Amino acid sequence: xxxxxxxRELMDSYDDAEYPPGFxxxxxxxxCLSEGFGIITFLVRDKEGNDFIxxxxxxxxxxxxDNSSLLxxxxxxxxxxxxxxxxNDTIFIAVREYIEGMPLSLYVEEKDLSMKEIxxxxxxxxxxxxxxxxxxxxxxxxxxxxxxIIIRPDGGISLIDxxxxxxxxxxxxxxxxxxxxxxxAPPEQYGFSQTDARTDIYSLGIVLRFLLTGSTKENPNxxxxxxxxxxxxxxxxxxxxxxxxxxxxxxxxLLMANPKSxxxxxxxxxxxxxxxxxxxxxxGIRLYRHLTYSPFTEDAVPAFLSDAERVSDAVSYLxxxxxxxxxxxxxxxxxxxxxxxxxxxxxxxDRAYVYGINEDMPQENDAYFLPWGWADSQTxxxxxAIYAAVKVHDPAIVADWSSLKDDNGFYPGARVATAFAEExxxxxxxxxxxxxxxxxxxxxxxxxxRVFEAADTAEK
Length: 460
Hints:
By secondary structure, the protein is α+β, with helices and mostly antiparallel strands.
Protein backbone atom coordinates (compact mmCIF):
# COMPACT_ATOMS: atom_id res chain seq x y z
CA UNK A 1 0.00 0.00 0.00
CA UNK A 2 2.83 2.40 0.88
CA UNK A 3 4.51 1.73 -2.47
CA UNK A 4 1.26 2.36 -4.32
CA UNK A 5 0.85 5.70 -2.52
CA UNK A 6 4.44 6.61 -3.39
CA UNK A 7 3.74 5.73 -7.00
CA ARG A 8 0.62 7.93 -7.01
CA GLU A 9 2.67 10.80 -5.55
CA LEU A 10 5.16 10.33 -8.35
CA MET A 11 2.41 10.45 -10.91
CA ASP A 12 1.03 13.61 -9.31
CA SER A 13 4.47 15.24 -9.65
CA TYR A 14 4.11 14.81 -13.40
CA ASP A 15 1.09 17.11 -13.43
CA ASP A 16 -1.33 14.19 -13.60
CA ALA A 17 0.10 13.13 -16.95
CA GLU A 18 -1.27 9.91 -18.33
CA TYR A 19 0.94 6.97 -17.48
CA PRO A 20 2.78 5.41 -20.47
CA PRO A 21 0.48 2.75 -21.89
CA GLY A 22 1.39 -0.87 -21.33
CA PHE A 23 3.42 -0.51 -18.16
CA UNK A 24 0.65 -0.81 -15.51
CA UNK A 25 -0.87 -3.73 -17.40
CA UNK A 26 2.42 -5.65 -17.44
CA UNK A 27 4.13 -4.80 -14.15
CA UNK A 28 3.21 -4.52 -10.50
CA UNK A 29 5.31 -2.22 -8.27
CA UNK A 30 6.80 -4.17 -5.36
CA UNK A 31 9.19 -1.70 -3.74
CA CYS A 32 10.65 1.79 -4.13
CA LEU A 33 14.42 1.34 -4.23
CA SER A 34 15.47 4.97 -4.54
CA GLU A 35 14.10 8.43 -5.17
CA GLY A 36 16.02 11.46 -6.34
CA PHE A 37 15.80 14.60 -8.43
CA GLY A 38 13.21 13.71 -11.02
CA ILE A 39 14.12 9.99 -10.90
CA ILE A 40 12.53 7.14 -9.01
CA THR A 41 13.55 3.49 -9.17
CA PHE A 42 11.16 0.63 -8.49
CA LEU A 43 11.46 -3.10 -8.07
CA VAL A 44 8.61 -4.41 -10.21
CA ARG A 45 7.18 -7.86 -10.93
CA ASP A 46 5.51 -9.13 -14.07
CA LYS A 47 2.47 -11.41 -14.25
CA GLU A 48 4.71 -14.51 -14.31
CA GLY A 49 6.39 -13.56 -11.01
CA ASN A 50 9.70 -12.37 -12.49
CA ASP A 51 11.40 -9.35 -10.90
CA PHE A 52 12.75 -6.37 -12.85
CA ILE A 53 14.08 -2.88 -12.22
CA UNK A 54 12.06 0.08 -13.53
CA UNK A 55 13.58 3.58 -13.58
CA UNK A 56 11.14 6.45 -14.08
CA UNK A 57 12.36 9.84 -15.32
CA UNK A 58 10.58 13.17 -15.28
CA UNK A 59 11.23 14.31 -18.86
CA UNK A 60 10.82 17.96 -17.90
CA UNK A 61 14.01 17.55 -15.84
CA UNK A 62 15.88 14.88 -17.77
CA UNK A 63 16.50 14.79 -21.53
CA UNK A 64 16.33 11.01 -21.57
CA UNK A 65 15.46 9.22 -24.78
CA ASP A 66 14.44 5.65 -25.44
CA ASN A 67 17.67 3.60 -25.58
CA SER A 68 16.00 0.23 -26.06
CA SER A 69 17.19 -0.07 -29.67
CA LEU A 70 20.72 0.81 -28.59
CA LEU A 71 20.78 -2.00 -26.03
CA UNK A 72 19.03 -4.63 -28.11
CA UNK A 73 21.29 -7.55 -28.92
CA UNK A 74 23.67 -7.09 -26.00
CA UNK A 75 24.62 -10.49 -24.61
CA UNK A 76 27.22 -10.41 -21.86
CA UNK A 77 27.10 -11.91 -18.39
CA UNK A 78 28.17 -8.58 -16.95
CA UNK A 79 25.30 -6.64 -18.53
CA UNK A 80 21.62 -6.75 -17.55
CA UNK A 81 19.24 -7.29 -20.42
CA UNK A 82 17.02 -4.35 -21.30
CA UNK A 83 13.55 -5.87 -21.38
CA UNK A 84 11.21 -2.97 -22.14
CA UNK A 85 10.78 0.79 -22.21
CA UNK A 86 7.78 3.08 -21.99
CA UNK A 87 7.62 6.72 -22.92
CA ASN A 88 5.17 9.56 -23.31
CA ASP A 89 5.46 13.31 -23.27
CA THR A 90 6.22 13.56 -19.55
CA ILE A 91 7.59 10.22 -18.35
CA PHE A 92 10.24 7.80 -19.57
CA ILE A 93 10.49 4.35 -17.96
CA ALA A 94 13.33 1.91 -18.61
CA VAL A 95 12.79 -1.68 -17.47
CA ARG A 96 15.74 -4.03 -17.19
CA GLU A 97 16.65 -7.42 -15.84
CA TYR A 98 17.02 -7.53 -12.07
CA ILE A 99 20.61 -8.31 -11.05
CA GLU A 100 20.96 -9.83 -7.61
CA GLY A 101 23.86 -8.46 -5.62
CA MET A 102 25.23 -5.37 -3.90
CA PRO A 103 26.34 -2.05 -5.40
CA LEU A 104 30.11 -1.61 -5.28
CA SER A 105 29.59 1.63 -3.33
CA LEU A 106 28.11 -0.40 -0.46
CA TYR A 107 30.31 -3.44 -0.97
CA VAL A 108 33.49 -1.47 -0.23
CA GLU A 109 31.97 -0.24 3.03
CA GLU A 110 31.51 -3.83 4.23
CA LYS A 111 34.66 -5.38 2.79
CA ASP A 112 38.32 -4.53 3.26
CA LEU A 113 39.29 -5.11 -0.36
CA SER A 114 42.79 -6.35 -1.06
CA MET A 115 44.83 -5.04 -3.98
CA LYS A 116 44.20 -8.33 -5.77
CA GLU A 117 40.42 -7.97 -5.35
CA ILE A 118 40.48 -4.37 -6.55
CA UNK A 119 42.42 -5.30 -9.68
CA UNK A 120 40.02 -8.19 -10.30
CA UNK A 121 37.04 -5.82 -10.17
CA UNK A 122 38.77 -3.30 -12.43
CA UNK A 123 39.82 -5.90 -15.02
CA UNK A 124 36.31 -7.39 -15.14
CA UNK A 125 34.96 -3.90 -15.69
CA UNK A 126 37.48 -3.54 -18.54
CA UNK A 127 36.08 -6.72 -20.12
CA UNK A 128 32.53 -5.36 -19.98
CA UNK A 129 33.57 -2.02 -21.44
CA UNK A 130 35.60 -3.74 -24.15
CA UNK A 131 32.48 -5.65 -25.17
CA UNK A 132 30.58 -2.35 -25.46
CA UNK A 133 33.34 -0.28 -27.05
CA UNK A 134 34.38 -2.87 -29.64
CA UNK A 135 30.95 -3.26 -31.21
CA UNK A 136 30.42 -2.18 -34.81
CA UNK A 137 28.67 0.84 -33.33
CA UNK A 138 30.53 1.44 -30.03
CA UNK A 139 28.33 2.01 -26.99
CA UNK A 140 29.60 4.57 -24.48
CA UNK A 141 28.12 4.12 -21.00
CA UNK A 142 28.91 7.66 -19.72
CA UNK A 143 28.00 6.98 -16.09
CA UNK A 144 30.61 4.57 -14.74
CA UNK A 145 30.56 4.81 -10.93
CA UNK A 146 30.47 2.40 -7.95
CA UNK A 147 26.69 2.78 -7.60
CA UNK A 148 26.27 1.36 -11.13
CA ILE A 149 28.58 -1.61 -10.57
CA ILE A 150 26.92 -4.62 -8.92
CA ILE A 151 28.89 -7.32 -7.12
CA ARG A 152 26.96 -10.52 -7.78
CA PRO A 153 26.75 -13.41 -5.27
CA ASP A 154 29.20 -15.39 -7.43
CA GLY A 155 31.80 -12.62 -7.03
CA GLY A 156 31.50 -11.35 -10.59
CA ILE A 157 30.41 -7.84 -11.50
CA SER A 158 27.63 -6.38 -13.62
CA LEU A 159 27.38 -2.88 -15.04
CA ILE A 160 23.92 -1.32 -14.88
CA ASP A 161 22.07 1.91 -15.77
CA UNK A 162 22.48 2.46 -19.50
CA UNK A 163 19.86 5.18 -19.58
CA UNK A 164 22.35 7.86 -20.68
CA UNK A 165 24.47 5.60 -22.88
CA UNK A 166 25.02 6.67 -26.47
CA UNK A 167 26.37 5.33 -29.73
CA UNK A 168 29.63 6.96 -30.73
CA UNK A 169 29.36 9.02 -33.93
CA UNK A 170 32.59 9.98 -35.67
CA UNK A 171 30.92 12.99 -37.34
CA UNK A 172 30.11 14.71 -34.03
CA UNK A 173 32.48 17.22 -32.42
CA UNK A 174 30.76 17.68 -29.08
CA UNK A 175 27.93 16.43 -26.90
CA UNK A 176 25.20 18.97 -26.39
CA UNK A 177 23.89 17.90 -22.99
CA UNK A 178 25.77 17.07 -19.78
CA UNK A 179 24.99 13.70 -18.22
CA UNK A 180 26.68 11.55 -15.66
CA UNK A 181 27.93 11.96 -12.12
CA UNK A 182 30.20 15.02 -11.70
CA UNK A 183 32.84 13.28 -9.58
CA UNK A 184 33.29 10.57 -12.23
CA ALA A 185 32.58 12.56 -15.41
CA PRO A 186 35.44 13.72 -17.69
CA PRO A 187 35.68 17.27 -19.10
CA GLU A 188 34.17 16.31 -22.47
CA GLN A 189 30.88 15.43 -20.77
CA TYR A 190 30.57 19.12 -19.95
CA GLY A 191 30.54 19.90 -23.66
CA PHE A 192 34.26 20.35 -24.42
CA SER A 193 34.23 17.56 -26.99
CA GLN A 194 32.28 14.47 -28.00
CA THR A 195 32.22 11.56 -25.60
CA ASP A 196 33.88 8.39 -26.85
CA ALA A 197 35.46 5.26 -25.34
CA ARG A 198 38.00 7.42 -23.51
CA THR A 199 35.12 8.96 -21.56
CA ASP A 200 34.43 5.61 -19.89
CA ILE A 201 38.18 5.10 -19.42
CA TYR A 202 38.34 8.37 -17.47
CA SER A 203 35.52 7.23 -15.19
CA LEU A 204 37.19 3.82 -14.80
CA GLY A 205 40.30 5.59 -13.54
CA ILE A 206 38.27 7.53 -10.98
CA VAL A 207 36.60 4.30 -9.81
CA LEU A 208 40.04 2.69 -9.41
CA ARG A 209 41.25 5.66 -7.37
CA PHE A 210 38.11 5.43 -5.21
CA LEU A 211 38.70 1.73 -4.54
CA LEU A 212 42.34 2.31 -3.62
CA THR A 213 41.97 5.49 -1.55
CA GLY A 214 38.31 5.82 -0.63
CA SER A 215 38.07 9.12 -2.49
CA THR A 216 37.43 10.24 -6.06
CA LYS A 217 39.88 13.12 -5.65
CA GLU A 218 43.65 12.87 -5.87
CA ASN A 219 45.29 13.02 -2.46
CA PRO A 220 49.11 13.48 -2.41
CA ASN A 221 49.15 12.25 1.20
CA UNK A 222 47.93 8.79 0.18
CA UNK A 223 50.58 6.64 -1.48
CA UNK A 224 49.40 4.32 -4.25
CA UNK A 225 51.56 1.52 -5.62
CA UNK A 226 53.38 3.27 -8.46
CA UNK A 227 52.20 1.15 -11.44
CA UNK A 228 48.57 1.61 -10.35
CA UNK A 229 49.13 5.32 -9.74
CA UNK A 230 50.43 5.68 -13.30
CA UNK A 231 47.39 3.84 -14.66
CA UNK A 232 45.06 6.22 -12.80
CA UNK A 233 46.93 9.31 -14.02
CA UNK A 234 46.83 8.13 -17.62
CA UNK A 235 43.15 7.17 -17.42
CA UNK A 236 42.17 10.53 -15.93
CA UNK A 237 44.24 12.87 -18.09
CA UNK A 238 42.31 16.06 -18.91
CA UNK A 239 42.89 15.72 -22.65
CA UNK A 240 41.30 12.54 -24.09
CA UNK A 241 44.26 12.01 -26.45
CA UNK A 242 46.57 11.64 -23.42
CA UNK A 243 44.53 8.76 -21.98
CA UNK A 244 44.65 5.10 -22.89
CA UNK A 245 43.20 4.82 -26.38
CA UNK A 246 41.44 1.54 -25.67
CA UNK A 247 40.17 -0.15 -22.52
CA UNK A 248 42.08 -3.32 -23.46
CA UNK A 249 45.27 -1.33 -22.84
CA UNK A 250 44.00 -0.49 -19.37
CA UNK A 251 43.39 -4.17 -18.66
CA UNK A 252 46.88 -5.13 -19.84
CA UNK A 253 48.43 -2.45 -17.64
CA LEU A 254 46.39 -3.64 -14.63
CA LEU A 255 47.43 -7.26 -15.12
CA MET A 256 51.06 -6.22 -15.44
CA ALA A 257 50.87 -4.24 -12.19
CA ASN A 258 51.67 -7.02 -9.74
CA PRO A 259 51.09 -5.31 -6.35
CA LYS A 260 53.27 -5.55 -3.29
CA SER A 261 51.98 -7.66 -0.46
CA UNK A 262 49.79 -5.95 2.15
CA UNK A 263 52.34 -6.40 4.91
CA UNK A 264 55.15 -4.89 2.86
CA UNK A 265 52.98 -1.97 1.79
CA UNK A 266 51.95 -1.26 5.37
CA UNK A 267 55.53 -1.53 6.58
CA UNK A 268 56.69 0.94 3.94
CA UNK A 269 53.90 3.37 4.79
CA UNK A 270 54.73 3.18 8.49
CA UNK A 271 58.45 3.52 7.82
CA UNK A 272 57.87 6.54 5.56
CA UNK A 273 55.66 8.13 8.21
CA UNK A 274 58.30 7.58 10.91
CA UNK A 275 61.10 8.90 8.72
CA UNK A 276 58.99 11.86 7.66
CA UNK A 277 58.15 12.73 11.25
CA UNK A 278 61.78 12.32 12.22
CA UNK A 279 62.92 14.56 9.40
CA UNK A 280 60.47 17.28 10.41
CA UNK A 281 61.15 16.97 14.13
CA UNK A 282 64.93 16.87 13.98
CA UNK A 283 65.43 19.00 10.90
CA GLY A 284 66.56 16.00 8.86
CA ILE A 285 67.70 17.90 5.78
CA ARG A 286 70.76 15.72 5.53
CA LEU A 287 68.62 12.59 5.69
CA TYR A 288 66.34 13.96 2.98
CA ARG A 289 69.29 14.69 0.72
CA HIS A 290 70.65 11.22 1.29
CA LEU A 291 67.36 9.48 0.54
CA THR A 292 66.78 11.53 -2.59
CA TYR A 293 70.39 11.53 -3.72
CA SER A 294 70.81 10.56 -7.33
CA PRO A 295 74.09 10.13 -9.22
CA PHE A 296 72.30 11.33 -12.34
CA THR A 297 72.44 15.07 -11.69
CA GLU A 298 74.74 17.83 -12.92
CA ASP A 299 76.30 17.99 -9.46
CA ALA A 300 77.29 14.31 -9.40
CA VAL A 301 78.10 13.06 -12.86
CA PRO A 302 78.47 9.24 -12.85
CA ALA A 303 81.68 9.44 -14.91
CA PHE A 304 83.45 10.94 -11.88
CA LEU A 305 82.91 7.76 -9.85
CA SER A 306 85.17 4.75 -10.15
CA ASP A 307 83.62 1.32 -10.61
CA ALA A 308 84.59 0.37 -7.05
CA GLU A 309 83.03 3.56 -5.70
CA ARG A 310 79.81 2.88 -7.61
CA VAL A 311 79.55 -0.63 -6.19
CA SER A 312 80.31 0.53 -2.65
CA ASP A 313 77.77 3.34 -2.92
CA ALA A 314 75.08 1.01 -4.31
CA VAL A 315 75.61 -1.67 -1.65
CA SER A 316 75.46 0.95 1.11
CA TYR A 317 72.35 2.53 -0.42
CA LEU A 318 70.47 -0.78 -0.62
CA UNK A 319 71.59 -1.84 2.84
CA UNK A 320 70.31 1.37 4.41
CA UNK A 321 67.10 1.46 2.39
CA UNK A 322 66.09 -2.20 2.70
CA UNK A 323 68.21 -3.47 5.60
CA UNK A 324 69.77 -6.15 3.41
CA UNK A 325 73.25 -7.68 3.41
CA UNK A 326 72.71 -9.84 0.35
CA UNK A 327 75.08 -7.73 -1.77
CA UNK A 328 78.03 -7.73 0.64
CA UNK A 329 79.98 -10.33 -1.37
CA UNK A 330 80.34 -7.93 -4.27
CA UNK A 331 82.76 -10.03 -6.34
CA UNK A 332 80.66 -13.21 -6.33
CA UNK A 333 78.87 -14.04 -9.59
CA UNK A 334 75.19 -13.10 -9.38
CA UNK A 335 72.58 -15.75 -10.18
CA UNK A 336 68.93 -15.75 -11.18
CA UNK A 337 68.25 -16.90 -7.61
CA UNK A 338 69.86 -13.70 -6.29
CA UNK A 339 67.66 -11.63 -8.58
CA UNK A 340 64.51 -13.47 -7.51
CA UNK A 341 65.41 -13.06 -3.85
CA UNK A 342 65.82 -9.32 -4.36
CA UNK A 343 62.45 -9.07 -6.09
CA UNK A 344 60.74 -10.86 -3.19
CA UNK A 345 62.63 -9.56 -0.14
CA UNK A 346 63.34 -6.00 -1.29
CA UNK A 347 60.37 -5.16 -3.50
CA UNK A 348 57.66 -7.32 -1.99
CA UNK A 349 56.62 -9.30 -5.08
CA ASP A 350 54.70 -12.54 -4.57
CA ARG A 351 56.93 -15.61 -4.52
CA ALA A 352 54.65 -17.59 -6.84
CA TYR A 353 54.73 -14.71 -9.34
CA VAL A 354 58.52 -14.44 -9.25
CA TYR A 355 59.16 -18.20 -9.40
CA GLY A 356 56.49 -19.05 -11.95
CA ILE A 357 57.98 -20.82 -14.97
CA ASN A 358 56.69 -19.97 -18.43
CA GLU A 359 57.21 -23.21 -20.36
CA ASP A 360 55.56 -22.10 -23.60
CA MET A 361 58.18 -19.70 -24.90
CA PRO A 362 59.93 -16.50 -23.76
CA GLN A 363 57.05 -14.03 -23.79
CA GLU A 364 55.16 -11.66 -21.53
CA ASN A 365 52.65 -13.52 -19.38
CA ASP A 366 50.59 -12.08 -16.56
CA ALA A 367 51.28 -15.12 -14.39
CA TYR A 368 55.11 -14.86 -14.45
CA PHE A 369 57.54 -12.09 -13.55
CA LEU A 370 60.36 -13.39 -15.75
CA PRO A 371 59.60 -14.62 -19.25
CA TRP A 372 62.52 -17.04 -19.04
CA GLY A 373 62.22 -20.36 -17.23
CA TRP A 374 65.70 -20.45 -15.68
CA ALA A 375 66.80 -22.24 -12.53
CA ASP A 376 68.12 -20.27 -9.55
CA SER A 377 71.65 -21.46 -10.30
CA GLN A 378 71.69 -19.84 -13.75
CA THR A 379 74.27 -17.04 -13.86
CA UNK A 380 72.82 -13.60 -14.44
CA UNK A 381 73.22 -11.40 -17.51
CA UNK A 382 73.18 -7.61 -17.24
CA UNK A 383 70.17 -7.13 -19.53
CA UNK A 384 68.11 -9.65 -17.55
CA ALA A 385 68.88 -7.75 -14.34
CA ILE A 386 67.95 -4.48 -16.05
CA TYR A 387 64.69 -5.99 -17.32
CA ALA A 388 63.75 -6.98 -13.76
CA ALA A 389 64.86 -3.66 -12.24
CA VAL A 390 62.72 -1.67 -14.69
CA LYS A 391 59.72 -4.01 -14.57
CA VAL A 392 59.47 -4.05 -10.77
CA HIS A 393 59.02 -0.25 -10.83
CA ASP A 394 56.91 0.11 -13.97
CA PRO A 395 55.74 -3.05 -15.80
CA ALA A 396 54.18 -0.98 -18.58
CA ILE A 397 57.64 0.02 -19.84
CA VAL A 398 58.78 -3.52 -20.67
CA ALA A 399 55.36 -4.36 -22.13
CA ASP A 400 55.39 -1.47 -24.62
CA TRP A 401 57.29 -2.65 -27.71
CA SER A 402 56.14 0.21 -29.92
CA SER A 403 59.66 1.65 -30.07
CA LEU A 404 61.04 -1.54 -31.65
CA LYS A 405 61.23 -1.95 -35.40
CA ASP A 406 60.76 -5.70 -35.07
CA ASP A 407 60.37 -8.46 -32.48
CA ASN A 408 63.35 -10.49 -33.65
CA GLY A 409 66.55 -11.10 -31.78
CA PHE A 410 66.86 -10.87 -28.01
CA TYR A 411 63.58 -10.85 -26.10
CA PRO A 412 61.72 -7.59 -26.95
CA GLY A 413 60.87 -6.65 -23.36
CA ALA A 414 64.54 -6.81 -22.39
CA ARG A 415 65.52 -4.72 -25.41
CA VAL A 416 63.02 -2.03 -24.43
CA ALA A 417 64.22 -2.09 -20.81
CA THR A 418 67.87 -1.87 -21.89
CA ALA A 419 67.15 1.14 -24.12
CA PHE A 420 65.31 2.79 -21.23
CA ALA A 421 68.23 2.03 -18.88
CA GLU A 422 70.75 3.55 -21.29
CA GLU A 423 68.65 6.69 -21.63
CA UNK A 424 68.03 7.23 -17.93
CA UNK A 425 71.37 6.12 -16.47
CA UNK A 426 70.27 2.85 -14.88
CA UNK A 427 73.00 1.05 -16.81
CA UNK A 428 75.78 3.36 -15.58
CA UNK A 429 78.44 1.32 -13.80
CA UNK A 430 77.18 -2.05 -15.06
CA UNK A 431 80.04 -2.96 -17.37
CA UNK A 432 79.79 -6.75 -17.66
CA UNK A 433 77.28 -7.91 -20.30
CA UNK A 434 77.19 -11.46 -18.94
CA UNK A 435 77.85 -13.26 -15.65
CA UNK A 436 77.62 -10.00 -13.72
CA UNK A 437 78.98 -9.86 -10.18
CA UNK A 438 76.72 -9.24 -7.20
CA UNK A 439 78.15 -5.73 -6.90
CA UNK A 440 76.93 -4.80 -10.37
CA UNK A 441 73.48 -6.25 -9.63
CA UNK A 442 73.43 -3.87 -6.65
CA UNK A 443 74.45 -1.00 -8.93
CA UNK A 444 71.60 -1.73 -11.36
CA UNK A 445 68.99 -2.00 -8.60
CA UNK A 446 70.20 1.13 -6.78
CA UNK A 447 70.34 3.10 -10.02
CA UNK A 448 66.79 2.05 -10.90
CA UNK A 449 65.50 2.98 -7.44
CA ARG A 450 67.01 6.44 -7.72
CA VAL A 451 65.78 7.06 -11.25
CA PHE A 452 62.18 6.13 -10.42
CA GLU A 453 62.26 7.99 -7.09
CA ALA A 454 63.44 11.10 -8.94
CA ALA A 455 60.64 10.63 -11.50
CA ASP A 456 58.06 10.31 -8.72
CA THR A 457 59.37 13.48 -7.06
CA ALA A 458 59.27 15.38 -10.37
CA GLU A 459 55.68 14.26 -11.02
CA LYS A 460 54.58 15.53 -7.63
